[in-house]
Amino acid sequence: MILSPRISVAVLLLGSSTVLASSAGSFTQAGNTLVSALLMFLGNEDTVYIIDKAEGNAAAVAGHPAWGSKWDIASQQAEVMDIRSNTFCSSGMHLPNGSFINLGGNDGITINGAPGSTKNTDGTGTGFWDAVYQDFDGRKSIRILNPCRSGDDFTSPQCKWFDDSSVLAMKAPRWYAALEPLGDGTIVILGGFTAGGYVNREFPVRDPITQNTQAQSTYEYYPAKDADPQLVQFLVDAGGLNAYAHMFLMPSGNIFVQANRSSMIWDHTTNTQTPLPDMPNGVVRVYPASGGAAMLPLTPANNYNPTIIFCGGSTMADDDYGSYSGPRVETWKIPASNDCQRITPEPQDGSAPVYVADDNMLETRTMGQFIILPDGTLLMINGGLNGTAGYFNITTDPFIKETPFGVSLASGPVFTPAIYNPNAPAGSRWSNKGLSPSPIPRLYHSSAILLPDASVLVAGSNPNPDVNLTTVFPTEYRAEIFFPPYFSASVRPVPTGIPKTLSYGGNPFDITIPSTSYSGSSNDAADNTTVVVIRGGFTTHGMNMGQRFLQLNNTYTVNKGGSITLHVSQMPPIPNIFQPGPAFLYVTIHGIPSNGSYVIVGSGNIEKQPTSPVGALPASVRLDSATGGVHPGQNGTSNLDGGSGGDAKKSHNLGFIIGAIVVGIAIVAVIGVLFAVWRRRASACLAPSKAYPLSPTAGAGWTSHKGESGIFVPLAQGKYNDTSDPWASSANLNAPYMDDNRASSIGSRSQVFGEYEKYSGHPGQTHAVPKSHSGY
């Protein structure tokens, strides 16, 4: 067996943080996600978790099509996971102990999105369960996952999704709900649909509050409080354009909320709202217009005061959005917006909050997504030039006359990402210089997430009601990794001494940076070093729910020999600024990040977080004679350990390299054979998607469940694709260096972190429908 030189080199580099300049600004393929990545989150240093809607994926689990998987960062291989209920257009968030919840979704469905075979008993015609897909109604579901690590037994109940609405459920059914954590770790759950649709209203509107019971303009909490869900008038006033409202917790404990063209400061404790100015220029940012939104980095320089940026979306007229049944115009012909606006909802100078125009994006974009990078810039990725999110029902929508893009309501995929620098002078904040395009269109139901090595995993795209591999914009399973420009550096920091937990206030801690982590003046490197904490969030629909970036305060001591000791403050003693839960800590030098280290912020419990006064930092100590790089007496091999430059590789003699290649090839070959055998034995696989034939009848991009459901069979059009094997996987030549010895997450941490954690290790739930059920 002969491996290609690329794979042979990959064997040598696996586990290192060697930065390859050729990869900077480019995409590489990263395997197959098995289910389309409608939702995605980074569970820990090892694993990304992926959630699809219930649909006819060829990958199977427990005798039905899978709609969940986990993607291993090191191997770039995915394995299916069982989820019991329909997760279509659900929401997700972290919990303080590092667990994650996934809330809501749609009802139980069958092929092409039609209602499941067993109906709910409320007379709505919605599905309770389906005999083919074996998915239960997910609209009230609360699913909990405790992420496991690579050494854990993933067949253990502790590593599986808990999903049983007879045990744990929301008080109201919700589809497209917005989530935001509070300073104590509680999750606010806002709005949503009760069944499905394009926008959350009838047309014309006859019942603005409940839209004939189809709108859920209320809020509740997780864990649940005693009170029933309360009406939020802001959502009613938003007139149906209120799905996946943008929510950001403010330092005061109030929440900034944006929907349609409206904004408010919301005191959820009393359900009172303070109106803010409307979004300028008539741009809608929420679904289905789907503009990008993010909180800009929180830093000592801005006193940790949040500023929110919005970019893209749509300026379509309000009536053009139509109703649950679909838009009233051919959306794919309408350019999206390139407009960007900033707002600081709680100005610290006492002034009134206002929107401030920012630089326009380089192109129009709907469904674009912001990823905050460790250097403090924001990556804008995915999306389309025209139209909106969603897909439509060709046979029942009188406003749709032609279908050049299958059932997609968007066109013109934006293949090239762009980077926004919030600190650059106005007029120069956007750039795509040196960034290569992806060959894969990423439109509706795409996702992206920051990885521990500071690259970005990009996956998904499925503007179809069920699996469709032949349409213009097909169901997409290929994953890619995007390497931001800082991967052009030949050296990256390798800090040591990073704690496992961060507190709100308290004594500072020290991080050591070896001299091999940088080159040049040590004083200069220390002056340009930052310590940042990033939470990548739970990504879906161009949003990263819970995403935040916070720079910790620090001073430094430059040591003889060029190492640098960073004296680092704990988190600011205001939990509302950065809520408790999992995050990654990065050290950057001149904008070049280390690999992220997994940390838990706060106590790990849903509770009022303990706070302490901010510990004093010592004064910085400089040493003019100190420099970085490989010094006499050092072995010069730190580059393969995530340290310094290319000269390190030259110290390895040819015999060592050849020997390593031979050993590596043998190991990979053996592992490959064993893995293939295991996969064949362990995973059941349905027949290809042709086992779930595409119906030539009505197709809905949402499911209103009033008798029409299915999928439109497109004309014979070429799909946007490259010529490579769509299932191909390539080794990650920039695999992150890990300097910790991570033990099993099952045995090393308590399984009881509060009331929500009692479901850890709960026995698996069956997919069989009970003989009788109450439904909704």
UniProtKB/TrEMBL annotation:
Keywords attached to this Swiss-Prot or TrEMBL record, sorted alphabetically, are: Membrane, Signal, Transmembrane, Transmembrane helix
Residues of the region (Disordered) are 625-645
From the UniProt annotation, give the residues forming the signal peptide: 1-21
Q: Where is the Glyoxal oxidase N-terminal domain?
A: 136-486
User: Which superkingdom heads the taxonomic lineage of this protein's source?
Assistant: Eukaryota
Taking every annotated instance into account, which residue ranges of this chain make up the domain Galactose oxidase-like Early set? 492-600
Residues that span the membrane, as ranges: 654-678
Could you tell me what this protein is called? Answer: Copper radical oxidase
| Species assigned in the record | Psilocybe cubensis (Psychedelic mushroom)
Kindly list the organism's lineage: Eukaryota, Fungi, Dikarya, Basidiomycota, Agaricomycotina
